[in-house]
Fold this protein.
Amino acid sequence: MLKGILKFLFDSRFYIALYISVVSHITLIIYSFNHSDSPYQKTFCGPPWIYEQEEEKELSFQMSFGNSMSETGNSDSSGEPGEGEEGEDGDGNGFSKGKYKGSQWEELVKDLEGTSSLRKQFKNDYDQINENSGVADSYIKRNRDYEDIIVKDVLPTVKGIRDPFRVDIETAEDNLFVHKERNRIIEEFRKGEESSPPITMRVSKEGEAEPKSPLSMSKEDRTRYLDKTLKQKKEKQLDEFISRYMGYDPDKGDLSQFVRDLYYENLQRLAYPFSGDPSYFAIDYFQENLNKEDFLRQMMAALSQNLGTSTGTEILFTIENIYEIQGRALEQYFQAKEYLKLATPEQKQTLRYETLRRVETKYKKLLQDKKLFTNKDVEEAYSKKRIDILETMISKTPKGYRLKDGYFEKGRVLWESGVLRKDSKLQTEAIKTWNRIPGLPSNGDFLNEKAYENIELLLRDLGNVTDAERISAHTKDQIEYILRTRLGESMMKKKEREDKLLWPKSKKPVEPNQN
């Protein structure tokens, strides 16, 4: 019997050694992957549309350890507080902060520790409320993510503002990975427990990616979907949208318009002034910019795969709009710096002033490095970037899709920059840009058609003058007014929808000076 076993083992020695070798190598690979210090290593944990390539199609073999992970790299939680609800942050117990010491996440962990008891240390008062502001009490008293305003990135465009836009596209997937890793660490800290990201292995096959089917979804169906999800946290809305819809054909069907609707109707929100104290508006402006980072990172990665499609064109319009709003957010930043200097001891003990103080400190060095010292510096840097984005769209949009809007928006950026800088050459360039619109193909919507026709009529009455120096100050003011009010009707509809679905009016009057 023993001899038989020994003979069997001797005869099978090659297969046994091979089995042990394979198991050992797999174990070593998995162990090394989990303990890598590099945040830039390639991982495949997002929706398949991000990673599809023409040269190959990918199969993802995934083994998860610990908690189940969501698209953002965070543990799924059915009890996640929605917008308007106040979630409780963990105190970091069970979170191994030592492993991040000396890494790029060390400052993040310090910020997490510093904000874990923020609401206990500072007052969340409501004072100097304007009772005639017309702003609903449900908006005034809504939950504001003070901790995230400090810990996350309300100014995500600053770091690469001096880079050409093509560099942003080239680094988009790496930036998205770092973004997701940061969110995972934040989630771990606040839950007070460690969770491991899913281990993924990439298996490639030769051949082309499978063709995608076009999305068929009417405007009414899209509106119902967006109304239903409006109250969800913006990150959750975006993750759900990406997982459900971004796998459809980016050139055919309704996906491109759905991307536009998602951003402008749900993810881009209005901020309302309701107090004589400007810190409230600054906080709300940063609150509405808070999730611009999530959209920017995820959609930039989508753009890197969909450039040259109609969906890619819509993404470019949304990204250009983010840069415009980020420029305004920096105006709020500089204003906050000034009134923080004048804050009273009582104001310094409030949650909003302490949040603004930490935000000001957080971005001080980065803004110095980027040579953004004044609103003038911001306007010049951001208008240059916006024109770069629009020129990318103009050169890449397929079959002239929304090309007229691209030229109109480029002309608008040039004109508004000329007004702020008192530079008639920029305004002349804007007029020449608008004059190209009649000869462009009519493919897709022309959302700025009415504003363009009004400007065209003014210039025609002057004999189609192209030199801005020959245009009177009155006519320039009229053009500026058209540009400033072009979104008036859509903004009113947007306000009415948000008031109805997000901020219903309370029967009780606003009561100032209450927590």
In short: The radius of gyration is 27 Å.
